[in-house]
Amino acid sequence: MDLKLSEASRDAAANGEKDRFLAALGERTRALRARRGLTRKGLAKAADVSERHLANVEMGVGNASIQFLRQVAQALNCTLAELVGDETASSPEWLMIREILRGRSEPELAQARGSLAAMFGAPASQAARRQRVALIGLRGAGKSTLGRMLADSWMVPFVELNRHIEAVAGCSLSEIHSLYGPAAYRRHETRALEDTIQRYPRAVIATPGGIVSEPATFNLLLAHCYTVWVRTTPEEHMSRVLAQGDTRPMSGNTEAMNDLRRILESRGAFYSKADEVFDTSGKTIDEVFAGLQERLRPTVNLAG
User: Fold this and answer.
1) Which residue has the higher pLDDT, 38 or 279?
2) Are 196 and 211 within 8 A, CB to CB?
3) DSSP-based three-state secondary structure for 2
4) Measured CA distances, 257 to 132, 233, 252, 265, 288 (Å)
5) Of all residues in the chain, what percent carry a pLDDT higher than 70?
6) Which of 56, 240, 254, 292 has the least CB density, counted as fewest CB within 10 Å?
7) Structural contact between residues 32 and 76, judged by C-beta atoms closer than 8 angstroms
8) Coil, strand, or helix at residue 298?
9) pTM greater than the 0.90 cutoff
10) Is residue 18 classed exposed, middle or buried when 0-12, 13-18 and 19+ CB atoms within 10 A define those classes?
């Protein structure tokens, strides 16, 4: 395998410097090789890679391909995540915890997550949690409309988290994304949720569709709110967004429906962590409102 350096790596090498990521990758490779008791020549042979290329990778100047890393990881009997520096492979305790959880079923993993949250987090009591209802799901599910109706019925504040994010950030959502990027948006999203939880002991909250994308924020939501996944079909999601006059989903994207299906599929496993799943497909807003009220009446504690 020929040695291939990225432009950044070549520049760093010319300046007598090393790319930090590549340097750390090299250190981890050497450490894992030492842990397995392998020489560099032995590892190169076991992984079927060039010893010269492996030497450059270990020195922090070799720009390794994914296939190269995959072969080295297999030879070292470790995961790619462990090789490239995933946090869950950064210490013996992380590795041992990961092995305990490996192969567990979804219910067992949910039980483990709940136990860890109770041990290290600060979850609200069940009574307090049931006084804050949070609606989750994709855009077009009806979260805002239903949230306002529920809040009015129960005479509690309604919080549309996207608007609260704008208040916390001091600018619009589009400005946050265009000026500061998605990472900044996620930080503001977390701050807005924390502020909402602190300010409103009783409320109905309509959350952004992507709130499940940041595990820490979603954990916070699950710990302090009674969550409801407002679910419908991709076709209804799209038609409702278009009915609201928002043509962005179709603008310049002939694969909009396929994209929406992929998003729903990728987020579905997270949405399903909600306390309730309420399907609104084929129902009028009045039917959905009445059905959701009936579903929540025995469990939430918001009605005056």
Assistant:
1) 279
2) no
3) coil
4) 33, 11, 12, 12, 24
5) 86
6) 254
7) yes
8) coil
9) no
10) middle
